[in-house]
Amino acid sequence: MPRRQNKGIHITSGDALVDFLFAQALRTLNQTVGDIFLNTAVFFVSRKKKKGGKKSIQTLCGLLTEDDDIHLSASKSLHPNRRAIAKTLLHEALHATFAEMEERHILQFEDRLWERLSPQQISLLCAYVPRRVGRKHYDR
Question: What number of CA atoms fall less than 13 Å from residue 88's CA on the CB side?
Answer without folding.
Answer: 24
